[in-house]
């Protein structure tokens, strides 16, 4: 029973994360960039449910850049941070 509940919750988080990326719109391609870079290593639902300010997202994205050299450029990192900060404006 616990496995079923965990599976349902995980599926819901993934679905909500995908919906969040789609609902955010193109945002100059930042949503697609976020999806391509961030979900290459983990579910985008993880990031979409976190509440951080700009400094918090900059620290997090920088940490991800350091984990996988040359995968996220500084320019892409800034677009991703801007995108994640823009999502926060709609959260209470």
Blueprint of the fold:
Blueprint: H1 2-23, H2 30-38, H3 44-48, H4 54-67, H5 74-88
Helix pairs in contact: 2-5, 4-5
Characterize the structure shown.
There is one protein chain. Helix content is 71%, strand content 0%. With 92 residues, it is mainly α. It has one domain. It starts with a helix and ends with a helix. Residues 18-26 have low confidence and may be disordered.
Helix content: over 70%
> Any idea how many domains?
1
Class per helix and strand makeup = mainly alpha
Fraction in beta strands: under 5%
- Low-pLDDT stretches are 18-26
- Tally the beta strands: 0
Order of helices and strands: HHHHH
For the terminal residues, how far apart are their CA atoms? 33 Å
Biggest β-sheet description: none
Shape: globular
The number of helices is: 5
> How confident is the prediction overall: mean pLDDT?
79
- Radius of gyration, whole Å: 14 Å
User: What oligomerization state is this entry in?
Assistant: single chain
Question: Short summary of the structure?
Answer:
The protein is mainly α. Helices cover 71% and strands 0% of the residues.
Give structural attributes:
92 residues, mainly alpha, 5 helices, 71% helix
């Amino acid at each position: 029973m616990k496995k079923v509940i965990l599976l349902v919750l995980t599926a819901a988080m993934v679905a909500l994360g995908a919906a969040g990326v789609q609902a955010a719109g193109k945002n100059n391609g930042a949503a697609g960039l976020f999806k391509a870079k961030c979900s290459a290593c983990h579910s985008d639902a993880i990031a979409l449910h976190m509440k951080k300010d700009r400094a918090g997202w900059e620290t997090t994205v920088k940490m991800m850049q350091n984990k996988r050299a040359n995968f996220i450029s500084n320019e892409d990192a800034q677009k991703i941070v801007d995108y994640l900060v823009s999502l926060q404006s709609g959260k209470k």
